[in-house]
Amino acid sequence: MRIKTGAAVVGLAIAGVSLLGTGSASSHGYTDSPISRQKLCANGTVTGCGNIQWEPQSVEGPKGFPTSGPADGKICAGGNSQFAQLDDPRGGAWPATKLTAGQGYGFRWQFTARHATSDFRYYITKNGWDAGKPLTRAALESQPFLTVPYGGQQPPSTLTHQGTVPAAKTGRHIILAVWNVADTTNAFYACSDVRF
């Protein structure tokens, strides 16, 4: 009986350390409109995605983008090497949501766990960027085209931001959505491929 009890205590201790080690287990989310790369992997539309197919909500990295945050070339994965498949441009062949430049659009987040939020920011690539290379800051417009302040509130399980897609865009682009968490040093990142 002592051996079983001791094993149970050790097992609980390991589980407790594992939960403490994740630190951000209470905050997760991704965009599904326009559909993000991680959601395309999770729903099986895109294969060969590695671990992200089981946890599309976990693309978390340092906040402060664009002055800090994930390194260039690692932005779509939030700087997480375990999700590096999201940074692979796949020859510019990620499935893309069709949009019309200048149209109104509902940008939607799904949250598997809600977290106090500073804001949401949406960036888009410049005309002439190279869709065959991993995303860099130089490929993005310098300012977000949509910023939604959230004042430290917790979002509901699904949240849609109404905005306007930038005008004068043609061809393939990436919309980078950034969810800045209020009470941690991290943010969540989602890259959505779009076609105008």
Structural class: alpha+beta
Q: Which band does the percent of strand residues land in?
A: 25-35%
The overall number of domains is 1
For the record, the CATH class is: Mainly Beta
CATH topology: Coagulation Factor XIII, Chain A, domain 1
Low-confidence stretches: 4-26
Instruction: Summarize model confidence as the mean pLDDT.
Output: 88
- For the record, give the distance between the C-alpha atoms at the N and C termini, rounded to a whole number: 67 Å
Oligomer: single chain
H/E element order: HEHEEEEEEEE
- The global form is globular
The CATH homologous superfamily: chitin-binding protein cbp21
- How many strands, what sense, and barrel or not for the largest sheet? 6 strands, mixed
Q: Output the radius of gyration.
A: 18 Å
- Tally of helical runs: 2
Helix amount, in percent? 10-25%
CATH architecture tag: Distorted Sandwich
Q: Work out the number of β strands.
A: 9
